[in-house]
Amino acid sequence: MKAYVYVSPKKSVLDPQGQTIQRALKKLGYQGFDEVRQGKYFELTLNSGVTRTQAEADVERIANNVLSNPVIEEFRFTLEE
Amino acid sequence: MKAYVYVSPKKSVLDPQGQTIQRALKKLGYQGFDEVRQGKYFELTLNSGVTRTQAEADVERIANNVLSNPVIEEFRFTLEE
């Protein structure tokens, strides 16, 4: 099973990396981009001994405690067989 | 329109960040995770003047030239209205 975790800065938090990319795009001639936000992306490979329910609980806990900072970031995840 | 770009290290490229996370998870008692790979995630907001065809071409070019290093990384993207 694979778990995909996406961590991004909360809407209320400034994202200077994203702003820099957005300005760079403008300078390069791409006018159509109003906003860019950068986040992190994790691909976790689970071994076959883990049930889906267990995987969901584990990945949720890991995303919250290890992979993201809940003060300034939010996350979502998907599981795939 | 929104574009979501996912950049991850190529399968053939070592991912020391991911390996460190995997070892940390093991130490924390999560035994079920065989591999962790870390990548980047971008959320681009396009203004309404851009057509879908134009957006696809622009985002593909940006993902390849600006957001990723094609020597060691691969990317995929999705567009959403």
List the helices and strands and how they pair.
Two copies of one chain form a homodimer.
Chain A: E1 2-9, H1 16-27, E2 33-46, H2 52-67, E3 73-80
Antiparallel strand pairs in A: 1-2, 1-3
Structure overview:
Two copies of one chain form a homodimer. With 81 residues, chain A is of the alpha+beta class. Chain A has one domain: Mth169, Chain: A (2-Layer Sandwich), CATH 3.30.1280. Chain A is 35% helix and 37% strand. The first copy, chain A, contains two helices and three strands, in the order βαβαβ. Chain A has a three-stranded antiparallel sheet with strand order 2-1-3. Chain A is elongated, with a radius of gyration of 16 Å. Chain A starts with a strand and ends with a strand. Strand 2 of chain A pairs antiparallel with strand 2 of chain B.
> Multimeric state of these chains?
homodimer
Strand order in the sheet with the most strands of chain A: 2-1-3
The number of strands of chain A is 3
Low-confidence stretches of chain A: none
Largest sheet of chain A: 3 strands, antiparallel
Give the SSE string of chain A: EHEHE
Give me the number of helical elements of chain A. 2
What's the pLDDT, averaged over the residues of chain A?
94
At CATH level 2, the architecture of chain A is: 2-Layer Sandwich
End-to-end C-alpha gap of chain A: 4 Å
- Overall shape of chain A: it is elongated
The CATH homologous superfamily of chain A is called: Phosphoribosylformylglycinamidine synthase subunit PurS
CATH class call of chain A: Alpha Beta
